[in-house]
Amino acid sequence: MDYLRLMSFGPDGWGYSLLAATGVTVAVAVCGFLVGAMLGCLGAAASFSRFRALRSAADIYTTLLRGIPDLLVIYLFYFGSSSLISSVGALFGAEGFVGAPAFLTGALAIGVVSGAYQMQVFRGAVLALPKGEIEAGRAYGMPPLLLFRRIVLPQAARFAIPGVGNVWQLVLKESALISVIGLVELMRQAQIGAGSTRQPFSFYLTAGVLYLLIAFVSGRGFKLAEQRAMRGIRRAV
Amino acid sequence: MPFDLPFLAESFVALLKGIPLTLQLTVLSVVAGGILAFALAFMRISGKWWLDVPAQFYIFVFRGTPLLVQIYIIYYGLSQFPVLRHSFLWPFLREAYWCAVLALAFNTAAYSAEIIRGGLLSVPAGQVEAARACGMSGLLLFRRIVMPLALRQMLPGYSNEIILMVKSTALASTITLLEITGIAAKLISESYRPVEVFVCAGAIYLAINFLVARLFAWLEYTVSPETRKPEERRA
């Protein structure tokens, strides 16, 4: 019963703060995911480019970011932008350390990391297209952009859904790491609660259940999207 | 931002000291997690619901929650229970090191179990039938036929998982362990030079992951002679 009162929405319950923090988690994960989707698209486009420099740049991006721990990238973004802001502040007479906005740097950091993964998903989806489709489009005289919009995108998007769903789950779990730079999202709120009530297990367990809930609901969403996108496709197996 | 070479070299040397701990955490948790993963995979394919459902639930929980939550529950959360604090386990659970190993092992077990299950399911039924026709059964069948074939299927997936584990050990720095990322965070907060420290730490992680990937590529090559060209095979 003690646990229920602790997590209730009453005056001495933590229900509202945890729920609000869950909202922040979803928001930062969605932002990071969208930044990653953009970077992933750019990376995938670069990897199919005619120019070797672009192809190797995309290759280096995805290899580096998938080989380095996310936590390290978050530290780099946070302390990197903070020291940049601090040195700019010093020009105007401000003193000491100025922290960068945690939401922004956090979303950017997980965006850059997830972009490396999404790039691979998008690449795979484009490569899964039958070559004949693209050749047929060219034979009709479609210029590259029209070909992309009418032929490549609608089909590649369909193939990409399962992989994108996986990356989303990854991003959601990664967003917990942003707590280390002080953004009050679900993980950080659980830390605060655990610290002030001395009930760490109850709080971390609740946080875990909430993460599981978001993962489950969004997983269902991706499954539905996949079913809808695949409804016109005959399955081999 | 001037790029300061002496500082770069200095932090590189400092970060090198974190490598043993990172590798220890990885190896211990991969070995312990691997054993647990085998048990989970066999529960999943046993065909008995009372074994399958708990394994499925375990995998769902550990794959659906952030590793950070798992680490915190074990390191900070368990101290909430006086029973545990007074038990013989406490000397272990009090140590951040063992908590990190435990959390990483539980986490990787969930992912590896699915990789191992996939490998076991990919063994063609005909192979097993042929082995049975030759009179093999039980452990002999598993050791001679199922395991070698499943191993080849799961090596690529497993090498990905180990690379993920190398990266996951970075989270141990959040519970005071000074492995590579822990030292990096310390250096950054002391020097306010994130870029140099990041370059060094990143290079070390990339080198480790490159070696892991090469090791597994070699393993895969060694265990699948049938996919090589005839002239290579003779050599």
- How many whole angstroms does the radius of gyration of chain A measure? 22 Å
> What profile does the largest beta sheet of chain A have?
none
CATH T-level topology of chain B:
MetI-like fold
The fraction of residues in strands of chain A falls at: under 5%
Instruction: Write the CATH homologous superfamily of chain B.
Output: MetI-like
| Structural class label of chain A | mainly alpha
Oligomer: heterodimer
CATH topology of chain A: MetI-like fold
Uncertain parts of chain A: none
Family (chain B): Belongs to the binding-protein-dependent transport system permease family. HisMQ subfamily.
Main location (chain B): membrane
Transmembrane segments (chain B): 20-43, 55-75, 162-185, 197-219
Subcellular location (chain B): Cell inner membrane; Cell membrane
Descriptors:
heterodimer; A: 237 residues; mainly alpha; MetI-like fold; flat; B: 235 residues; 0% strand
Describe the structure.
The complex is a heterodimer of chains A (about 240) and B (about 240). Chain A has nine helices and no strands. Chain A is an all-alpha fold and about 240 residues long. Chain A has a single domain, classed as MetI-like (MetI-like fold, Orthogonal Bundle). With about 240 residues, chain B is mainly alpha-helical. Chain B has a single domain (about 5-235), classed as MetI-like fold, CATH 1.10.3720.10. Chain B has helices spanning about 5-15, 20-45, 50-65, 65-75, 80-85, 90-95, 95-120, 125-135, 140-170, 180-190, 195-225, 230-235. The radius of gyration of chain B is 22 Å and the shape is flat.
Give the SSE map.
The complex is a heterodimer of chains A (237) and B (235).
Chain A: H1 2-6, H2 15-47, H3 52-67, H4 70-91, H5 102-127, H6 131-139, H7 144-174, H8 186-197, H9 200-229
Helix pairs in contact in A: 2-3, 2-5, 2-7, 2-8, 3-5, 4-5, 5-7, 6-7, 7-9, 8-9
Chain B: H1 5-16, H2 19-45, H3 49-64, H4 67-75, H5 82-85, H6 90-93, H7 96-121, H8 125-133, H9 138-168, H10 180-191, H11 194-223, H12 230-234
Domain ABC transmembrane type-1 (chain B): 19-217
Family (chain B): Belongs to the binding-protein-dependent transport system permease family. HisMQ subfamily.
Subcellular location (chain B): Cell inner membrane; Cell membrane
